[in-house]
């Protein structure tokens, strides 16, 4: 992966789901609601001074949200953080850098 360029979209892995789960409460707080489903479907990653993850998450039967999560460098010992998100997305909406 080239530094700064997002990767191609890939199917979500167990690691992607774990990252999404770590920021679920942050998104619920920002949106002031609980999500009955929070299933990571696909993702892109971007190597910066740490790593950005762009993750498409299913939050209800036909409702999807795109989240951007930042994972700092290991020596910084910081938790992952929800840095941005886009709601009202569809299953087939392209996961783009935002």
From TrEMBL:
Keywords assigned: Acetylation, Cytoplasm, Protease inhibitor, Thiol protease inhibitor
Domain of life: Eukaryota
Domain Cystatin, first and last residues per copy: 1-98
Signal peptide: none
SMART domains registered for this protein in UniProt: CY
PROSITE patterns associated with the record: CYSTATIN
Compartments in which it is found: Cytoplasm
GO CC aspect terms: cytosol
InterPro entries cross-referenced by the UniProt entry: Cystatin_dom, Cystatin_sf, Prot_inh_cystat_CS, Prot_inh_stefin
Principal subcellular localization: cytoplasm
GO MF terms, alphabetically ordered: cysteine-type endopeptidase inhibitor activity
Keyword Plastid: no
Family as reported in the entry's similarity comment: Belongs to the cystatin family.
PANTHER family recorded: CYSTATIN FAMILY MEMBER, CYSTATIN-B
Name of the protein: Cystatin-B isoform X2
């Amino acid at each position: 992966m080239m530094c700064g360029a997002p990767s191609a979209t890939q199917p979500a892995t167990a690691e992607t789901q774990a990252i999404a789960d770590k920021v679920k409460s942050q998104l619920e707080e920002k949106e002031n609601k609980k999500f009955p489903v929070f299933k990571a479907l696909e993702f892109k990653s971007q190597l910066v001074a740490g790593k950005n993850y762009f993750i498409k998450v299913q939050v209800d039967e036909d409702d999807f949200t795109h989240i951007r999560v930042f994972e700092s460098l290991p020596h910084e010992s910081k938790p992952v953080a929800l840095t941005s998100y886009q709601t009202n997305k569809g299953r087939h909406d392209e996961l783009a850098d935002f």
